[in-house]
Design goal:
Length: 144
């Protein structure tokens, strides 16, 4: 006889106590491939990629306008005589910088860059769907 030994579970109360992101994404930890469905991974990657691409596009336009406007104002100030550019000094400094680049030029990649690149490759391998969705969303965000 099992009549008095069962306890009822109110799912509505349990859902109210859970944050919305846990009910949507689950509570497990580990790579996203183990936690989320394919559709959820693509959605997360796509939305974050689109937002990043959209912001990158807007900031890029603003930065290009600022840099272009700055060059325009400098040329205008130079042409009207407000500033004078010492072109011989610019040429001398450019030659010096060019020589320093030749000296520093080597075919070896620094170990810090190698370790970061390995981390990125490892992340991409573990989260292929999220990464693919991110890049697709990024391209769409740049286009919109």
């Amino acid at each position: 006889n099992f009549e008095g030994k069962f306890e009822s579970l109110d799912l509505a109360e349990l859902a109210k106590k859970q944050p919305w992101w846990r009910t949507l994404f689950g509570q497990e930890s580990g790579p996203s491939a183990e936690k989320y469905s394919v559709a959820t991974q693509l959605l997360i990657g796509g939305v974050t990629g689109w937002c990043t691409g959209f912001i990158f596009q807007k900031v890029g336009k603003l930065a290009a306008t600022a840099v272009g406007g700055g060059f325009f104002l400098l040329q205008l100030a130079n042409h009207t005589g407000y500033i004078k550019v010492d072109w011989q000094r610019v040429e001398k400094d450019m030659k010096k910088a060019k020589e320093q680049l030749k000296i520093r030029k080597s075919n070896q990649i620094p170990t810090e860059v190698k370790s970061k690149a390995e981390e990125v490759v490892s992340f991409v391998k573990k989260n292929v769907l999220v990464t693919g969705g991110f890049f697709g969303g990024f391209l769409l965000g740049m286009a919109s």
